Amino acid sequence: MSKWLYLLSILTLILIGCGDEKSEGLTFTEKGREVPSFNVDSAYHFVEQQVEFGPRVPNTEAHQQALHYFQNKFKSYAGDNAVYVQRFEAEGYDETLNLGNVIAAFNLSGPDRIMLSAHWDSRPRADMDSTNAENPILGADDGASGVGVLLELARMFRDNPPPVGVDIILFDGEDYGKSGDLNRYFLGSRYWSKNPPVPGYSPRFGILLDMVGGAGAQFPKEQYSVNYAPNLVNEVWNIADEKGYGDMFLNEQGAAVSDDHVIVNEQAGIPIINIIHHYRKSNGVAEFPSYWHSQNDDLDIISKETLQAVGDVMAELIYNRL
Ligand SMILES: [Zn+2]
Fold first, then answer.
1. DSSP, res 99
2. What's the gap in Å between 240 CA and the centre of ligand 1?
3. Architecture of domain 3-14+35-320
4. How far is the C-alpha of 269 from the C-alpha of 228, rounded, in Å?
5. Model pTM score
6. 17 band by pLDDT with thresholds 50, 70 and 90
7. Where are the domains of the chain?
8. What's the whole-number mean pLDDT along residues 261-275?
9. Fewer CB in a 10 Å sphere around the end CB: N or C, the chain?
């Protein structure tokens, strides 16, 4: 039996008989547990490392290097048997894309689980640049920052097992599509939702981190998130406020941002929220920071202050509110 089948059979057994915990899955209380500190230097290093590979564009060498890097990192944190790469193909523009979602499971024996995710690919073009718009971008914030926070949380989970089971899922192919061609975005989350590695997978909730490392980031309450899991949104934003991050996690209505969480909610039925740096224009439409989808999305715009805030909020939620 392959390692993954072994993992699958354990998880399947766990899933039978935990159906009625869902209603309690989205209520939160302070548990008085000790919360490990989030090491922002390490998180920053994980962002830097991804940027050093170059643009993680599907069907490139850098993309493969990054995939192996995540796989090995996760194995060292979760164990060899708890990491799975879900490889798949998708139709791109005049090419067949070889893609892979990277999954790591912590506390395999725990029936009560949550899901954390980010996208690990970076965009093949710089649509927002006036020159060389066909060049790929480094995606230090758009892609690497969310993965960096999750890798550091994974390292934390190795040293301090979380009180619930945690599945980290890095989606591939989120940012492949040309502007406006939404069918070619979210390729990894679409595949994962249609082909769940663990049939019937039903975590309490999910959290998607996208663009969580930019200097001066603002996270208003993204609209789909509020619709899918209002209690979770309130808990996360309350924690941020208590920790003094209210100027970043704005207690304001955000815009509706199309992202992997919409696919995961609508196709896999999981209540999931998105923490994403964006602005809500007066007409309600989403706007993104100036470096978005441009060559300026490089390491220079990454702020340890932002990464720290997001990491602290996640750690408090996971270790002390569930
Ligand atoms: Zn993007």
1. E
2. 24
3. 3-Layer(aba) Sandwich (3.40)
4. 10
5. 0.93
6. very low
7. 3-14+35-320
8. 98
9. N
